[in-house]
Predict the 3D structure of the following.
Amino acid sequence: MEDKIVILQNAIIASDVPQIAATVVDAAIDIGSSDIHIEPSEYTVRIRFRVDGILRSIIEYPPSLHAAVVSRFKIMANLKIDESRIPQDGRVQITTPDGRELDLRLSTLPTVHGEKIVTRIQDRSRKIPKLEDLGIEPHNLKILKRAIAAPNGILLTTGPTGSGKTTTLYACLAILNTPEVNIMTIEDPVEIQMDGLNQSQVYPAIDYTFAFGLRTGLRQDPDIMMVGEIRDRETIEVAIEAALTGHLVLSTIHTNSAISTITRLLDMGAAAFLITATVNAIIAQRLVRKICEHCKAETIIEPAIEQRLRRAIASMNPTQRTKLGLTDNTPLKIYHGAGCELCGHTGYKGRIGMYEILEMSNAIKELILKNGSPLEMEKVAIADGMKTLEHDGVEKILAGITTPEEVYSVARTTEEEDKDDIMDQIDSEKISIPKK
């Protein structure tokens, strides 16, 4: 990586624009970056790489070179170099010296100081990880495998962009992918190509949407269908129809937690009795950085952090607390990365998933049919054995896998969830606030 930075510096000094573009891409691939950001400002242009979910500043170059750099990237992606007033999207395929096939998805955006470029790097040849390698602990793994072993139904995974939802679904499809079944996917775009799957990409500009693709796909005699995202009422209605007619449907949806997904489905217009009849399980997930194993060391736990962790442990299911083997007097051990060359002096190397998996038990189904509150559902789900994102994160903290800072940057505490549930009820007029 340091050699590439030196080459990049020399290319900038020499105003060698083709070398700048090529070296930026090479350096990003070497460091394991998922995105390249080239951002113009008044006095400089900044290049940053997103590594393990965090942006790192790499180098800067003068604005006088930026127009030529933008044109070079546009030429690579077959975009219009004389159009800078509107955003453009393009794609280029490259093969690395070690034989990896990569897709570079380039997006330009006009700003007050010039066009910003963001390039997403996707490794088309990367292997699908096993579910066990994603950070799903044994209890959650059993629930998930039960959900995908069902002959029909819906499995939903939720989380923000870049939280690994698609990877989780592909790991499930890798288990289900046998010669005896017909698997179809409707995606936007097709991110990972897998042998044995019939993969199709939507084109909203010509009305080829998720709902239309899913409905058309049902005529292709599928056993299993994966839909990139459930965004509207029509898509969820077709997914429910598919599940009721004997198909297994996997998809993603954007909500904050497994429980809030039920509220979202109801808001989309799905009937409560249809949700209980078709949804097998709901996964909420996040990605957190792992502590670098090369420089990991035990660290002193601050009182506020210890109090937060103990409060989370107290809210766990009794069985989960027993497995941790902790008492009120047991000292808690946490770790951090001191920083070394292998992790770029960040203390972190790689990422792992945090998972909250809700299995649709009879108790949860009864609450849905009775229009129970999200808070009631969460309490029942935890009593039934569900681990919240916070619970799973706390276990990973105590196991020395990640840090409290990472976990609480993506997982809310139970108290915060309670406040959000109250606000959701106020917003949906389930609670009336007395006037003064």
